[in-house]
Amino acid sequence: MQESHSQVIKVDISWEALIKLVHWFYSDELPNPPSGCLWFNMDDQEKLFNLQPYVELCWLGEFWIMESIQEACWNVIMSCLDSSKQLSIKIIKMAYKLSLWKLVDIAANLMAPSYRQLRDSGELEEFDDALVHFIYSASIELNHE
């Protein structure tokens, strides 16, 4: 990002996220992803494609201290996140890379019931050790409740 008096501000987000950001700047509303039957009939890749811009904007909102867009994105992400285990797996990786710790924690809690299955299937092998520890800790907490 450059100085505020500069003609150019460089933002490291996808084109889809940028479109949503511009829409939000002009209307103070964040467009929602597909919902209902459209959402439930999408495969996990399509769901991730639709949810990724909101994760990016959540990070940008935190980085630029734009609480209203961060909260709007957070609400969208939370409403969609528990629809698929695979979606949680992909979102937790993305959130971890962007240091969105609150989202990492929530995704880890959603994945916690499946920890043993994920470990036994080898799906956790591609994860960073710290991320596996997040999920493992959430699993331990779940078992103690």
TrEMBL record:
Pathway: Protein modification; protein ubiquitination
Superkingdom to which the source organism belongs: Eukaryota
UniProt cross-references to InterPro entries, sorted A to Z: At1g04390-like, SKP1/BTB/POZ_sf
Record's protein name: BTB/POZ domain-containing protein
Organism: Trifolium medium
The organism's taxonomic lineage, starting at the top: Eukaryota, Viridiplantae, Streptophyta, Embryophyta, Tracheophyta
